[in-house]
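User: I'm preparing a small set of examples for a lab meeting where we compare how different chains pack in three dimensions. I only have the primary sequence for this one, and I'd like the structure in token form so I can line it up with the others. Please keep the answer compact; I'll paste it straight into my notes.
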Amino acid sequence: QVQLVESGGGFVQPGESLKLSCKVSENIFNFNAIHWHRQTPGKARDFVASINVGGRINYAASVRGRFTISRDSAKNTVYLQMNSLKPEDSAVYYCKANILSRDYWGQGTQVTVSS
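Assistant: Understood. Below is the structure token output for the 115-residue chain.
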């Protein structure tokens, strides 16, 4: 069973940074891509960023230029560096691994940005 474990969330002030980690239980190159999504109460889970097996990266417009997705294949871990955080970035952040038509999700990590 594939497992993904997010970590690194927390409470920060506007303008500060956080780095999230997504540890995958198997080789990340087994998957088509690893994604980060986020969700606030009562809203849909929104796409944030992704990196595919070939290294192609995509960002949501709302985070482009502030967030950076990266990976360490030796650690089977994907990261999300979040800079210049805003209150509207507050959410539960989830990572997702997908292969063919199947998605695997982590349990999420809470990020709160507030003064």
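A couple of notes for your slides: The longest strand covers residues 91-99. The radius of gyration is 13 Å.

User: Perfect, thanks.
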